[in-house]
């Protein structure tokens, strides 16, 4: 019996280690050498980049901003005019003359450059938002995959426990039938089997829910098949200090990049609003056709007179308020990122430390206590209650380790989103 328990314990630990190991890259369409979708994290991230509609919508918004910027500095359409008039004369028959002109307005004082700069800033802001959407989507997939992998690992551990519980229940029933054990031990062992089966049902539901969320993030049917995960990402052995992470976030965080672009665009719009007091130039050239006379030519120069002051002042106030608002929004975003960085780093550090204690000390100690209790019971020197209690403690510790790993994976995903890429 003792050798049997040692073998089961080794199997459970091996299953746990396998589920926590890192998997290889998976493509969207599996090849003979590539794992199926869902087997590892990389394959899910690749699929999301092609399938997620939110990410594709952000890319289309960037394309729309880029298309708008390509024509931001262009001139307005010219105006074509035909005007029929009479030749000035004091007597004689009516002689008609026709003016055929083309007018074009030319914005002066650098207005076209300011419009182009504001539009290009809008493109940069859209690109930043698109990248931010991609990183946020990646974080959600990482979080959900951590739950999916942990539930699968917990099911593997729980399956080993269930097989062990059934063996113990059979032994307790046999001992009771032989008059060597009590009916209470047999009933307690059967109850432990039922408890483990209930736990198995709960873990199965957790894995099903995580798989449904993964499919939703990939715009697939919620019940679409996903491969059993080959493992989750291991937590990093060490992480950079907060100051280094903050510097990376300042340089690479897409929300900050989008905010900076919005500030730049708002400043260009403020300058453009101030230029409204300076008139634009309108040029017109054309030909004059006369019924009885030579063809002539005409040229016109026109300026808009900035007499309507209130609309211009209102536009200036609007542009100044928008510029100040974008600066305040950027400052708030930067503060949020710094706080989130500190929180995620603390959570990751705590998870790594806790997981280390579990692996190095708690699990080996609980495993030894469980084996010792089971061996004593096999020799008739211990109680079944002690065996079941030791087994329950070991089982719970394994599940707690998986929970800690999930918390660490969530913190790691948050850090990668905040700094704009892998650590």
TrEMBL record:
Keywords on record: Signal
Q: Which domain of life is it from?
A: Bacteria
**Signal sequence interval, chain numbering:** 1-26
Under the heading InterPro entries, the entry gives:
MdtP/NodT-like, OMP_efflux
Q: Name one Pfam family in it.
A: OEP
A GO term, aspect molecular function: efflux transmembrane transporter activity
Cite the PANTHER family for this sequence.
BLR4935 PROTEIN, OUTER MEMBRANE CATION EFFLUX PROTEIN
Q: Which family does it belong to?
A: Belongs to the outer membrane factor (OMF) (TC 1.B.17) family.
Q: What is this protein called?
A: Transporter
Source organism per UniProt: Nitrospirillum viridazoti CBAmc
